[in-house]
Amino acid sequence: MRLRHSKKAQETIYFVAIEVFLVTIVLLAFLANVNSIKNKSIYQKQFLCRDIALIANTIYSAPGNIYYMYEPYEIQGINFQRYDYNLEEYKSRVIDKTLETFYPFGKNTLLENGISLIQKPSKIELSLSGGKFAFGKGIKTNYYAKNIRKTTTSSTNIIFVSGVQKNPKTGSFYTEGQSFFSSTNLPGEIKSNFKISNVSKGTAFRLLEQYNSDLIIGIRQDNLLGEEVRIYVSSHGLNETRYMASIMVNKLQQQFPKIRQIQIIPVESSKKIVIVSAGEEFLKSYGYYIPQMFAEGVFESVP
Amino acid sequence: MKHTNIFRNRKGTFTEEMTLWIPRLAFTIIAGVILHLLVSTFLQTEISVLDADAEIFNNRLLTSRDGISYQDQLNGRIYPGIIDQSKFNDIASIEKSIFYGEESTYLGAKLKLYDANKKLISEQTYHNLAYRREAESYLPGKGGVEVKEKDIYVLIKDKDRIQPGFLHTIVVISRS
Question: Does the ipTM surpass 0.85?
């Protein structure tokens, strides 16, 4: 019996066709739903704003300095460069033209926050250094962590002295080398970290006794600073000479990239001096003016 | 298959066929619904970071400079795991160091310090406006909150005295 001549067969085919049609409709609806979800940018924006908020919270939790570059290119389907980014009003914001998607993050209001709008970036930089949080592109970083709680010190007056040399022929003394005082903001940083009433510049170590100062820092900025530097820290004077030496370490590393090793060596001395030494010759130049140090055996073995 | 004709005319035969197709269509619909559920299981349309956020909050208390950990005043070094009790009691500073906004109800926490014998030494509430939403933890969906509790073994420094103890944190995070 041929099917096309059978009415019963026609009815059977009719109902089977309806069933197949319904199943096809359902399958196409599923595919369309999945495709529409895949193409929605809201999920990208939600992911990005949550990710950046978590990273900002993590950066704030660092105990020291940290620099992080955010480039989520390895995540498939994320069109990172399409949007603008901002961290204002305690929210991580992803901006698509005029529409914003945001997620809260915990801002540290005790720090200085340098946050700027970033438009369609190739990368986002976040850093926490020098007591400052930064969010943006091309941010600069300091190297030491600023102590926002003011330390106590018994000293009020600090003199910066450049390197001095003795002319072997004439026996006269002269200053040599550019002083750290003018070329860096180290004096300002020391003043802001310690209760110092006056930080000024001096010219010669031989006027040591003439300076009415609590601490004299002898430091020399020129090519003589080699790969290894020692900072001799006197235990007499400021309570936080070691902390001050840490600040100087960071400054030297920043200023002289070729320096590989810096050591902070505490010495017992009646003189309130912090000296940055780059080598034997430079060290001896200070020793000419501080014979007591040689007498005390501080510089008996010069490296 | 041998049919038993319920009705004895052509219309009756058609009606009989229709009646038999009803359970078939019903089965097809049920199969379709099950297929939809299977597909929906693998579709992730929500990104939840509440667990990570709570963990980061706990770590931030312990490792950041403006948290509750002891900091050496000479060199500025943080000692995570050593709780400075004076900093722990200064909850106002902690609220400034982790600030979600004046009116924000996103995250709140209860911090409890216990000694080694589980005796409560000190208790502080971080951002009470958000923490009091802990009472809404029974609400399902976006209107409710997630409550995350954690115990951390720490050393507690009170001036010159150091003793072992526990830090118990209850973090309440809004789902919306």
Answer: no
